[in-house]
Amino acid sequence: MKSIEIEGKTVEEALNKALIELGKDKSMVDVEILDHGSKGLFNVIGVKPARIKVSSKYDYIEEAQDFIRNILNCMEIEAKIDIKEENDIIRINLSGDKMGVIIGYRGETLDSIQYLVSLVVNKVHELPHKKVILDTENYRSKREETLKGVAIKTANKVKKTSKVFKLEPMNPYERRIIHSTLQGNVFVNTYSEGDEPFRRVVVELKKDL
Fold first, then answer.
1. Cα–Cα–Cα angle for 118, 141, 87, nearest 5°?
2. pLDDT tens string 132-191
3. Are 119 and 130 in contact (CB under 8 A)?
4. With contact defined as beta carbons under 8 Å apart, do 25 and 8 qualify?
5. Which InterPro entries match (predicted)?
6. Percent share of the chain, pLDDT over 90
7. In this structure, which topology does domain 141-205 adopt according to CATH?
8. Cβ atoms 165, 155 nearer than 8 A
9. Looking at domain 3-56, which of 3.30.30, 3.30.300, 3.30.1450, 2.60.40 is its CATH number?
């Protein structure tokens, strides 16, 4: 959060100077009056300027956008960044060429960038926590549908063969999709085993069948 100290004939004049320098409006800053100043005698003798400290309020959107833009520049990727905030959730969508590089193998690069953006956005611990969801080309919804299909197909295999099936290692978000999809299944149970990043979902036949 950028802060500046600035003087003016009055507090109001100093504030206007600060807003111009910071490129902000009044609602986007915090103001601390360091000295109200003095008009002095006959506005000549003992005149003392007002002095204030003006700080930009923490802007989640601006922080996220600047951080992602720096990452994209380092990767030499041009992309449009669309950010929306609702109910303490910051949804970020990237669009442009080379989005496959952003996604990475099974979304690993996308997840890593999302994690880093979340750290940046939530670095001020005194402010409310924001959940960050980073996506591009609807990857997350497509991946979710794929995982739901994997879950159902695996459950059918377990039901048919009575064998235990261990799925490939997944991140916590993807494992939750598998667990949630099969939560109401009357034939199978699911649980996770192993340590990150190799933790995986196990699907087994219910013991009372």
1. 45
2. 999 999 999 999 999 999 999 999 999 999 999 999 999 888 999 999 999 999 999 999
3. no
4. no
5. Jag_KH, Jag_N_dom_sf, KH_dom-like_a/b, KhpB, KhpB_N, R3H_dom, R3H_dom_sf, R3H_KhpB
6. 57
7. Ribosomal Protein S8; Chain: A, domain 1 (3.30.1370)
8. no
9. 3.30.30
**CATH class name, domain 60-137:** alpha beta
For the chain, the structural domain boundaries read 3-56, 60-137, 141-205
Q: Give the 3-state secondary structure of the chain.
A: CCEEEEEECCHHHHHHHHHHHHCCCHHHEEEEEEECCECCECCCECCECEEEEEEECCCHHHHHHHHHHHHHHHCCCCEEEEEEEECCEEEEEEEECCHHHHHCHHHHHHHHHHHHHHHHHCCCCCCCCCEEEEEECCHHHHHHHHHHHHHHHHHHHHHHHCCCEECCCCCHHHHHHHHHHHCCCCCEEEEEECCCCCCEEEEEECCCC
Structure tokens that stand for 179 in this block:
């667990």
